Amino acid sequence: MSASPSKKLRSQLWFDNPANPDMTSLYLERYLNFGLTREELQGGKPIIGIAQTGSDLSPCNRGHLDLAHRVRDGIRAMGGVPLEFPVHPIQETGKRPTASLDRNLAYLGLVEVLYGYPLDGVVLTTGCDKTTPACLMAAATVNIPAIVLSGGPMLNGYWKGQLAGSGTVVWNAREQFARGEISYDEMMDMVASSAPSVGHCNTMGTASTMNALAEALGMSLPFCAAIPAPYRERGQIAYETGRRIVDMVHEDLKPSDIMTREAFENVIVACSAIGGSTNAPIHINAIARHIGVELSIDDWERIGHKVPLLVNMQPAGHYLGEEYHRAGGLPAVVAELMKHGLIHEGAKTVNGKSIGENCRAVTIGDQDVIRSFEAPLKAEAGFIVLKGNLFDSAIMKTSVISPEFRDRYLSDPNDPEAFVGRAVVFDGPEDYHHRIDDPALAIDENTILFMRGTGPIGYPGAAEVVNMRAPDYLLKRGIKALPCIGDGRQSGTSGSPSILNASPEAAAGGGLAVLKTGDKVRIDLRKRTADILISDAEMAERRADLQGHGGYAFPASQTPWQEIQRSMVDQLSDGMVLKPAVKYQ
Ligand code: FES
Ligand code: MG
Predict the structure, then answer these.
(1) Does the pTM of the predicted model rise above 0.90?
(2) Ligand 1 within 6 A of CB of 464
(3) Which domains are delineated in the chain?
(4) Residues near ligand 2 ion, CB 5 Å cutoff
């Protein structure tokens, strides 16, 4: 399509508004100072933002600094004008106290840019965990034409001939170090081996999950998410993405046309099939709230639980990003799900076609990497949602429950899905690191580890700490995974079967606040319950006592943003959004 818009472009309000020559001249002149011409800015060409999430502080997304050149080429080829700008960095592994503190900050910043500057459409450069939801949340709020360009995973990592996957290798290295099998330097080398190139995590952690789900949502071109960062196809799809956004502006194809309830249901189904991260419900629910689609935490179990795990990728399976890409990526998974009627095929995507049209003819390139529905890695791979006197909701990824874990905890023939354990309670990650190896806690295989004070308010942004390793003295005995429960999050690269994202959190009056070390707790995975085994009277007494002491105590804020977010953030089950932001749609 040519650059002859049928309707006035949004950017013309700034750059070509004869009704207001004074302001137009002011808006225009400074954008000419680096060499743009009046013809470019006043000639009816779509002005396309490139929301740049890469920087030296954000190595996972740093490849976007180069990719943006190909995006610009694509935008120019279709008669658009690119304007690149920075997004507040959100580096998962570098930001203290936690990168998720900044998801909503980057969202707010991007909303202001998209709303307040002369942009007709935007390319969202995504990758590291929170960059994808932050960008999509902002696109949802402002609702101008937007398209996702994933940065792609790193190449496969190898350690001593074995695949070494992002994050997953850290858990393994830490266990080997605790057992004295490797030195400090070997531990550093082992972990670094998982990061051989630019790109985001190469496991099906939160980054690969969220980029795959952006594609399932219809917000990126087909096949975009899985292409490894250094592959030539990555540069090629950057070019195609730049071309496509210009036409999206001419077609006025907006996020609200794409991110519908049907699209979100597709996302939930796809998340189970790929073995997606437990962070996905938080971020996807947040995007839904900003675009105004009803989506609840219960929808995740109702729509997603019975879906089988098809993608054989770490942490739930074996392979890494390169094999997944070669096997067909998200379109091959969707095609397989479509054969079983699990996808709303009519949901529209950014290329103007439906997801059904995009994926129907795609075949699986490697049947061991992407399994058929008939030979899945696991049946019923979605999340379950638990409730009880400890919390109103918490989620569990049942697909990562190992056979040893099942044998140890879920083998009572009379009650195969329930177990009772003795609680050992930690107040935040510092308390945990301090005391986990203390023999006085008497942690054994009947212990359930609890982590509280780590929700969006308690540990601003919600810490990724619920998956706790067992103490060194148990690791030495070969016991790796104890049941863990908490009001924080868990790394998407962790293979622990934790119960997490408990809402409300202790700091917001949740039941975890009254739990004491030594309490008996009963978990029933079949009934979906988790309860402290104390009487209602005792529960009421403990609650009254807590209130008498001013409620659950948590550390003071260290920065202005921590304080601001804490004053208005919602719980994990509802997307951890800033409550006042939801009404702007
Ligand atoms: Fe950035 Fe995993 S740490 S993608
Ligand atoms: Mg993470």
Answers:
(1) yes
(2) no
(3) 45-154+199-360 (3.40.50.2300), 157-195 (no CATH), 384-549 (3.50.30.80)
(4) 92, 129, 206, 491
